[in-house]
UniProtKB/TrEMBL annotation:
<dbReference type="InterPro" id="IPR012340">
    <property type="entry name" value="NA-bd_OB-fold"/>
</dbReference>
<dbReference type="GO" id="GO:0005829">
    <property type="term" value="C:cytosol"/>
</dbReference>
<keyword id="KW-0648">Protein biosynthesis</keyword>
<keyword id="KW-0547">Nucleotide-binding</keyword>
<keyword id="KW-0436">Ligase</keyword>
<protein>
    <recommendedName>
        <fullName>Lysine--tRNA ligase</fullName>
        <ecNumber>6.1.1.6</ecNumber>
    </recommendedName>
</protein>
<dbReference type="InterPro" id="IPR004364">
    <property type="entry name" value="Aa-tRNA-synt_II"/>
</dbReference>
<dbReference type="InterPro" id="IPR004365">
    <property type="entry name" value="NA-bd_OB_tRNA"/>
</dbReference>
<keyword id="KW-0479">Metal-binding</keyword>
<dbReference type="InterPro" id="IPR044136">
    <property type="entry name" value="Lys-tRNA-ligase_II_N"/>
</dbReference>
<dbReference type="Pfam" id="PF00152">
    <property type="entry name" value="tRNA-synt_2"/>
</dbReference>
<feature type="compositionally biased region" description="Basic and acidic residues">
    <location>
        <begin position="11"/>
        <end position="22"/>
    </location>
</feature>
<keyword id="KW-0030">Aminoacyl-tRNA synthetase</keyword>
<dbReference type="InterPro" id="IPR045864">
    <property type="entry name" value="aa-tRNA-synth_II/BPL/LPL"/>
</dbReference>
<feature type="domain" description="Aminoacyl-transfer RNA synthetases class-II family profile">
    <location>
        <begin position="186"/>
        <end position="499"/>
    </location>
</feature>
<dbReference type="GO" id="GO:0000049">
    <property type="term" value="F:tRNA binding"/>
</dbReference>
<dbReference type="GO" id="GO:0000287">
    <property type="term" value="F:magnesium ion binding"/>
</dbReference>
Length: 500
C-alpha cells in the first residue's frame, strides 16, 4: 500500500478486514454479491433533489451505492459519505447516507458498525432528505455490503508521494481529486481532437502495432518475435507509413490516435510508451496542416476553459501570434552572427565550444546546427512557434523545400519551450524516398539503432502514386502536459515504471 501508511498498520488493517470477510461468509452473508438493487446514481439524486430546503424530508425512496470515503458511527446514528465513479461530466459525486436505530433496527445498525470500513462499497435504500445541517442525504431503511475492501485507502489527509501516485494509480484515484480530474481532462482532450478532425472530414483508422519493418521516425524500437510465422518484428515507433498507404489507397483525409513505443530514455517529457495523433491530408502541405494543428489546439483550449496558460516562465497566449521561425535565422538571431546551410563545419564546432554545447565528433554540419538550435533556441520559445526550414537530415520523410534545395518543408511546433508536434509537406517521390530510406538503412547497418529500415512495401505503395499531402504528428501526452503543467507520468493514467 502507499508508503504514507506504516507497514504494521496496513498489515493489521488487512488482517482485521480479512477476518471480517471470513466471518461474513461463515454467517452466510455475501461480501461480494453479484448485484444490488440500485435505482439511482448519486449524481441523479443530487440533481433531482437539489432544491430540498434544510431539514426537509420526502417520501421518495431510492437505492444508491458507492464507495465509503467517510465514516462516523455514534450510538444510535451513523453517518457515511459515499463516492461514485467518474462520468463524462464530473470527477465523482459524493452523497451522505444516514442510518438510525429507529429506521434500520438494532441488528442492522450493529452489523453496519461491525462490518463496514473505509473503502468498502455499500448499497443503501431509504428516503431522500435534507439534514438539519442542510446536507442532502439518504435516510436508510436498509443497507447491504456490495464489495469488501481488504486494503485500507490511502490517508485522505496526507500528501501522496509522486512515486506512490503513479505506481498505485488505482489508490490515487480513490482519494485525490486532481488524479480524477486528469482522467476527465484527458478524455475531454481526445474527444475534442476527434470532433475537430471529424468536422474537417477526416476518417479515423487503425494501423498495425506489430510491424515487420520499423519506420516513420528516428527512434530505437522494441523488438519482439511472432511465433506463428517465426519472424522477428517490432512494436511501432510511429503511425506514419501505414497512414500514408491509406492515402495512396484513396483515404484522402485520415488520422489515428494510438500508442507508439520507443525503446529510449525516461524523463519528465519522455515515456517509452505514449500516445500520438497523426493525420494526413491529401492536397495539403506544411502550411495547411499547421493551420489545422493550430485549430485542434485552440479547440482543446476552449474545451478546457482558457486560451491563456499560466507557466513559471510566463503566460502562454494561444490567441496571440503563432510565429514561423526558420532554423538558420533563429539560430543566427541568438548567436548574433549569420549561420546558413553553407556555414563551415569547423565554424559551427567553434560556436558550440564557445557556448558549451556538447557535440558528437561524427556529426556533420546539419546535425550540429540542429543541436545548437535545440540547446540555444528551443528553450526560449514560450509562445507558439512553428520552427521551420530544417536541414534535410532532420526528416527523411519530408519533401525538399520548393525554393531552397538545402532545406526541407518541415516544422516542429514549440509551445512553452517544448516540442508539441511535427508537420511537413510529405515526400511522395518514390525515387527520392528510396534514396533516403536506403541511406537510413546503411546507417542502421553501421550500428545506428534509431535509423529507419528500408520498407519495400511502403515504397511499392508510393510507386502506385500518392497525391501531394501534408502530415502531422502531435504528442497527445505533451499536449495534456501543456494545459495541466504536469510531467508525462502524471498525464498517463498507468505509465510504464521501473519495477519496485
Amino acid at each position: 500500500m502507499p508508503d504514507e501508511l506504516p507497514d504494521l498498520d496496513v498489515s493489521e488493517q488487512r488482517r482485521v478486514r480479512q477476518e471480517k470477510r471470513s466471518r461474513l461468509l461463515d454467517e452466510g452473508r455475501q461480501p461480494y454479491p453479484v448485484s444490488v438493487a440500485r435505482t439511482h446514481s448519486l449524481r441523479e439524486v443530487r440533481t433531482r433533489w437539489a432544491s430540498l430546503a434544510t431539514g426537509e424530508e420526502t417520501t421518495d425512496v431510492v437505492g444508491v451505492a458507492g464507495r465509503v470515503v467517510f465514516l462516523r458511527n455514534t450510538g444510535k446514528l451513523c453517518f457515511a459519505t459515499l463516492q461514485e465513479g467518474l462520468s463524462t461530466a464530473d470527477t465523482g459525486v459524493r452523497l451522505q447516507v444516514m442510518l438510525s436505530l429507529a429506521e434500520v433496527g438494532e441488528e442492522a445498525l450493529a452489523a453496519w458498525k461491525a462490518d463496514v470500513d473505509l473503502g468498502d462499497f455499500v448499497f443503501v435504500s431509504g428516503r431522500v432528505i435534507s439534514s438539519r445541517r442542510g446536507e442532502l442525504s439518504v435516510f436508510a431503511d436498509r443497507w447491504e455490503l456490495a464489495s469488501k475492501a481488504l486494503r485500507p485507502l490511502p490517508n485522505l489527509y496526507t500528501e501522496l508521494s509522486e512515486e506512490t501516485r503513479v505506481r498505485q494509480r488505482y489508490a490515487d484515484l480513490t482519494v485525490r481529486e486532481e488524479a480524477r480530474q486528469m482522467v476527465l481532462t484527458r478524455a475531454k482532450v481526445t474527444r475534442s481532437i476527434r470532433d475537430t478532425l471529424h468536422r474537417h472530414d477526416f476518417l479515423e483508422v487503425e494501423t498495425p502495432v506489430l510491424q515487420l519493418v520499423h519506420g516513420g521516425a528516428h527512434a530505437r524500437p522494441f523488438p519482439t518475435h511472432l511465433n506463428a510465422f517465426d519472424v522477428d518484428m517490432t512494436l511501432r515507433i510511429a503511425l506514419e507509413l501505414y497512414l500514408k498507404r491509406a492515402v495512396v489507397g484513396g483515404v484522402d483525409r485520415v488520422y489515428e490516435m494510438g500508442r507508439i513505443f520507443r525503446n529510449e530514455g525516461v524523463d519528465s517529457t519522455h515515456s517509452p510508451e505514449f500516445t500520438m495523433l497523426e493525420f494526413y491530408e491529401a492536397w495539403g502541405d506544411q502550411k495547411t496542416v499547421a493551420d489545422l494543428t493550430r485549430q485542434i489546439i485552440l479547440d482543446v483550449a476552449d474545451v478546457l476553459g482558457s486560451r491563456q496558460i499560466e507557466t513559471p516562465a510566463g503566460v502562454i497566449d494561444l490567441d496571440g501570434e503563432w510565429r514561423w521561425l526558420g532554423v538558420y535565422p533563429g539560430l543566427s538571431e541568438v548567436l548574433g552572427e549569420e549561420v546558413t546551410p553553407r556555414t563551415p563545419l569547423e565554424r559551427l564546432r567553434e560556436i558550440a565550444a564557445a557556448r558549451d554545447v556538447a557535440l558528437d565528433p561524427a556529426w556533420g554540419a546539419q546535425k550540429v546546427v540542429m543541436e545548437l538550435f535545440a540547446e540555444l533556441v528551443e528553450p526560449t520559445l514560450l509562445q507558439p512557434t512553428f520552427v521551420c526550414d530544417y536541414p534535410p537530415v532532420a526528416q527523411p520523410l519530408a519533401r525538399p523545400h520548393r525554393s531552397d534545395p538545402d532545406l526541407i518543408e518541415a516544422w516542429d511546433l514549440f509551445i512553452g519551450g517544448v516540442e508539441r508536434g511535427t508537420g511537413f509537406s510529405e515526400l511522395i517521390d518514390p525515387v527520392i524516398q528510396r534514396e533516403r530510406l536506403t541511406a537510413q538503412s546503411l546507417e542502421a547497418a553501421a550500428g545506428d539503432p534509431e535509423a529507419m529500415q528500408l520498407d519495400e512495401d511502403f515504397l511499392d505503395a508510393l510507386e502506385l502514386g500518392a497525391p501531394p499531402m501534408g502530415g502531422v504528428g502531435l504528442g497527445l501526452d505533451r499536449l495534456i502536459m501543456l494545459f495541466t503543467g504536469v510531467g508525462i507520468r502524471e498525464s498517463i493514467l498507468f505509465p510504464l515504471l521501473r519495477p519496485s
